[in-house]
Amino acid sequence: MSITINTLTLLVLALHLLADFHLQWASLSDGKRARLAPLFVHGFIYMTCMALPLLLDTRLWPGLLVIVGSHLVLDFFKSLLLNKGDQKGEAALFFIDQALHIAVILLCCEVFFRPSADSGVHTLTVDALKWVLLLLFVTKPANITMKQALKKYAGFPVPKDLPEQATVPGAGAMIGNLERVLTAILLGLSQFAAIGLVFTAKSIARFDRISKDQGFAEYYLIGSLFSLLWVFVGWIVLYKLL
Q1: Hey, which bits of the chain come out as E strands?
Q2: Distance separating alpha carbons of residues 211 and 129, to the nearest angstrom
Q3: What is the mean pLDDT of residues 156-161?
Q4: Whole-angstrom Cα distance, residue 9 to residue 11?
Q5: Half-sphere exposure (CA, 13 Å, Cβ side) for 202?
Q6: Which residues lie below 8 Å from residue 158, measured CB to CB, with a gap of 6+?
Q7: Which long-range contacts (CB under 8 A, 24 or more apart) does 214-221 make?
Q8: Which of 86, 184, 180 minimizes the C-alpha distance to 142?
Q9: Cα–Cα distance measured from residue 30 to residue 126, given in angstroms and rounded to the nearest whole number
Q10: Cβ–Cβ under 8 Å, residues 109 and 63
Q11: 3-state SS assignment for residue 130
């Protein structure tokens, strides 16, 4: 069975999300701003992930080389701009950087990978790759993107009469990941009404603060709607447009 351009595109996009988000921890990402060593570490991880398709077809190396090289160049210039600019432009740089990465990947899939028709990967189906890509998309990339997009809404004042809220580090991100994964699964099962139960359960845990803190309630609602929209957009793109 030949590997199609669609299958290759899905595979490379999944590897991009894996290397650029899931295998890039916070200290490594922050370290790229000040030193070259973290940039090289990230580049090595990214290159290793992008080399995996060569196990399927060695003729893919020119396109993969362009993807890896452009990724390192873009990350280098992004680090330079972050060091010279202020924090206000960080979110814009993040979105521009990711848009350019995705654009390069799609262009390389169209230009370099189309002639590669032969492959022995008959076990990799398009539907399976779509699910892998969707799950990678709705977890850590969603958390990081939401943090960048909603940064200006996070500085709301906490009422003085409200007791300090003790939270478990990382619990919010894990709740968001589980929420979006469950939403994606329910979409796949066409259980649309059950999606509301997921958000109801999430709201119960924060009900006391939501009812007493207007700023937090608004931020919580924006975050929940953003999270829901993120899954819907990913689902529509993968299963309706592709």
Answers
A1: none
A2: 42
A3: 58
A4: 5
A5: 25
A6: 213, 215, 216
A7: 215/156, 215/157, 215/158, 216/156, 216/158, 218/153, 218/156, 219/150, 219/153, 219/154, 219/156
A8: 180
A9: 35
A10: yes
A11: helix
Q: Is 122 helix (H, G, I), strand (E, B) or coil?
A: coil
Is the pTM value of this prediction over 0.85?
A: yes
Reported confidence tier of residue 205, pLDDT bands at 50, 70, 90: confident
Domain boundaries, given as residue ranges, for the chain = 5-121, 152-241
The letter for the amino acid at 22 is H
What is the C-alpha separation between 9 and 109, in angstroms, rounded? 6
- Structure confidence at residue 3 (pLDDT): 44
CB-CB contact of 81 with 68 (8 Å): no
Answer whether 60's CB lies under 8 Å from 53's CB. Answer: yes
Q: Distance between CA 40 and CA 128 in Å, rounded? A: 32
- Contact (Cβ atoms closer than 8 angstroms) between residue 65 and residue 111: no
* Lowest-confidence pick of 61-75, 118-132, 176-190, 212-226: 118-132
